[in-house]
Amino acid sequence: MTSHSSASVSRRTFVLASAALLARPAFSAFPAHASAVREYRLTAAPGRVPLVGGEHPETAVWAYNGAVPGPEIRAWQGERLRIVVENKLDEETTVHWHGIRVPNAMDGVPHLTQKPIAPGASFTYEFDVPDAGTYWYHPHQRSFEQVGRGLYGPLIVEEREPIAVDREFYWVLDDWRLQADAQISGDFGNMMDMSHNGRIGNTATVNGRIRETFEVRRGERIRLRLINAANARTFALDFAGHAPRVIAFDGQPVEPHAPAGGRIVLGAAMRADLVIDMTGKPGERFRVSDTFYRGLEYRLLDLVYAAEPLRDSPPDAPVALAPNTMPEPDLKAAERHEVAFGGGMMGGMMTAMMGGRRMDMREMMQNGMAWTVNGVAATGHMLDPFLTLARGRSYLLAMHNDTAWHHPIHLHGHAFRVISRNGQPTRYREWQDTVLLSPRERAEIAFVADNAGDWMFHCHILEHQAAGMMGVIRVA
What we know:
Immunoglobulin-like, six-stranded mixed beta sheet, mainly beta
């Protein structure tokens, strides 16, 4: 939990916006037979959006196509996407397709995989989407500010045979550090955020708005895709009076199950697909709360039941998703590597390597750095790999969070199985691309290094990434 004075989240900080449905029509954009290449255009530019609503002025943001979140990108599994990105910002940018196993040249990491898109220029990303699931897109250039000002959007890849639900929605979750005039605080990159818990905001939004209600009907079954687009906030959603089942993490199918403790916990950049059966009575209201930070719990919105039910009870149909295409790691033959994450305030780290020489923590912080991977603080994206893996071989990474803070660790270009936590096997051996490590936690992940290139491996608290907690894994 950050010690920044604006960390306390209150949905009453501003007059709340009027109620609005968050629906996105399931499959409405799709013809019966999908085309071989599906094309989109994104323009990154300054804009203004009614983030808070009511009598408050619109908030100045950076946005894709003038909206926060940016436009929904949808494709069928196995399709090819072509996305033309135009940069109308006053600084360079890129777009990273978070969770999609793209070719290395399409990964959107400045200088490592592509030259950044200059102001006034454009770049065309083109890649196949091998796996169905819930993904998202965002810049990797100065992401701690570009994402924090609103540059992100959902990317949904439909299964070839979707499960049967009555409606499908996505909620892109974010928090914002807003001033009294509903404008974004400009204190990006300060060392308090960099060395503590990242940029925690004071205003939570769903799909770019403060929401009061979400209307449902008795007897319906909903698929809800959750995407955490916040710079740093971990969300832990509790659906009062309901029993959501998790059917996917980070886009990858998992055995349908009730979440541990009844809460869906998502670190920054993580996603979860839920199936929720609506069993309330017409006119009833149920609170959806975010309860991750003790003492800072708040109501996100209310589920409100419409007067007319859809049916007496939800359907009884299978909700398990078909597997995706990840190759299964061979744990017996897997090569093991240790990866330690260090630094931050109260972390106990004394010295680290930075720019080829050893520094103490005080000197590191004077240079804007606070975190390390295997004892090295990364500066920029052009890094020598700390691991070189043979293409096609199985690997097990034993990760150690030697800090006092949470870290959602993301590997580009691959998905991995979470094999164990603190020495105990995981129940579901879930596939993920971002795994949340608690303070002092140990976790083992396993994957096949089947995607050639230099891949970022970093904390997705964007301030931690900028302050050194990232590295490069080479697959060759």
